[in-house]
Amino acid sequence: MHLTKAQERSLDVRRAHGYGPIQMPSERDRAIQELMRAASGPGFLAETLRVIHPRSSDILSAFAKRMATLAVGTINASIARDGLAAVQLTRANTRDFREAVPARTLLYRAFAIIVANPDSEFRKAHQALPVPMKETLVKFADREPRDRSVQAMLYHEESKGGSFRFVCDW
């Protein structure tokens, strides 16, 4: 697996500032989304981790949060699945598993809004993961509802004029 120039630029940690609030979808979103789709399937995690920068976790986490919002706004579960792939890479690319929890929470809620069965989506996604990470993803789905709520992660949902977004409260 090789990154395209657009994917390299999109995952460049020196260009991370200001990514979160820009218009969706952006060229950066599309480049990362293309990588997530190319990297899906058995073995995607190890192969993708081999070609991305170890500090790309912040960008992947921001991408996952953006995809949660975009998925709800467009009612498109495949976009949320791209975000979930990015969360899996974030989790594998960082020492602190908690860094992936806010994005995972938003994606769980996005699936609940779009397909009504987020547990099924999380369980499907865990099949491509190594054993320690499988437990993390499934355990998240098994949490108490209040512990996996967007409010627990200090976010809220906002709908205005036909558009939707998750808003960070901190």
Plain-language structure description:
This protein has 170 residues and is mainly alpha-helical. It has one domain. The protein is built from eight helices and two strands.
Structural class: mainly alpha
Please provide the count of β strands. Answer: 2
Rg computed from alpha carbons, rounded to a whole number of angstroms: 15 Å
- Parts with pLDDT < 50 across at least 5 consecutive residues: none
Q: How many helical stretches? A: 8
Tell me, briefly, the overall form. Answer: globular
The pLDDT mean sits at 86
List the strand order in the largest sheet: 1-2
The oligomeric state of the chains shown is single chain
User: How many structural domains are formed by the residues?
Assistant: 1
Element order: H for helix, E for strand: HHHHHHHHEE
How much helix, percentage-wise, in residues? Answer: 40-55%
Q: Descriptors for this entry?
A:
170 residues; mainly alpha; two-stranded antiparallel ribbon; 55% helix
Which SSEs are present, and which pair or pack?
Layout: H1 5-10, H2 27-38, H3 44-51, H4 57-74, H5 77-92, H6 101-114, H7 118-125, H8 131-141, E1 155-160, E2 163-168
Antiparallel strand pairs: 1-2
Helix pairs in contact: 4-5, 4-6, 5-6, 6-7
Offer a concise description of the structure:
This protein has 170 residues and is mainly alpha-helical. It has eight helices and two strands, in the order ααααααααββ. The chain has helices at residues 5-10, 27-38, 44-51, 57-74, 77-92, 101-114, 118-125, 131-141, and strands at 155-160, 163-168.
